[in-house]
Amino acid sequence: MFVDHVKIYVKGGDGGDGMVAFRREKYVPNGGPAGGDGGHGGNVVFEVEEGLRTLMDFRYKRHFKADRGEHGMSKGMHGRKSEDLIVKVPPGTVVMNAETKAVIADLVEHGQRAIIAKAGRGGRGNCRFATPANPAPELAEKGEPGEELEVILELKVLADVGLVGFPSVGKSTLLSVVSAAKPKIGAYHFTTIVPNLGMVETEDGRSFAMADLPGLIEGAHQGVGLGMQFLRHIERTRVIVHVVDMSGMEGRDPYEDYVTINNELKEYNLRLTERPQIVVANKMDMPGAEENLEEFKKKVGEDVKVFPVSAVSRQGLKPVLFEIADLLEVTPEFQLHEITEEESDATVLYKHKAQKDDFEISRDSDGSWILEGGSIERLFKMTDFSREDGIRRFARQLRAMGIDDALRERGAVDGDIVRLLEFEFEFID
Question: Within a domain: residue 384?
Answer without folding.
Answer: yes
